[in-house]
Amino acid sequence: MTLRNSKNGAPKMMLGFIVRRCAADIGHTPSPDEFAAWANARRQDGHEYCLFGKPISPSIAKVMFQQPGRLVTVNGDSFEKHWRGPRG
């Protein structure tokens, strides 16, 4: 079961899961600078988008690291599918 934003139906995920996905993609625990760059430059079907709907700064990423249980809305169905894997 996927939690959804009640306003637009977009998927919601805990920040800790998103940070772990970033770590898996880059091969180590991200710094705030690395996490912001990773979240701001997502790609899907040849288009680039920001994972959180708008760019985040390294200082915002640092705050996010302190709130791993917080639920946030993420853009891009491919992110959700990629995280869940082929079993869905």
Q: Over all CA atoms, what is the radius of gyration? A: 12 Å
Strand order of the largest sheet: 1-2-5
> Which stretches are poorly predicted, pLDDT < 50 over at least 5 residues?
81-88
- Give the tally of structural domains: 1
Q: What does it look like?
A:
It is a single chain. The protein has 88 residues and is an alpha+beta fold. It has one domain (3-83). The chain contains four helices and five strands. The protein has helices spanning 15-26, 32-40, 58-65, 77-84, and strands at 3-4, 11-14, 42-44, 47-49, 71-73. The strands form two sheets. It has a three-stranded antiparallel β-sheet. A two-stranded antiparallel sheet has the order 3-4. Strand 3 and strand 4 form a beta hairpin. Helix 2 (32-40) crosses helix 3 (58-65). The longest helix is centred in the N-terminal third of the chain and has 12 residues, at 15-26. It is globular. Residues 81-88 have low confidence and may be disordered.
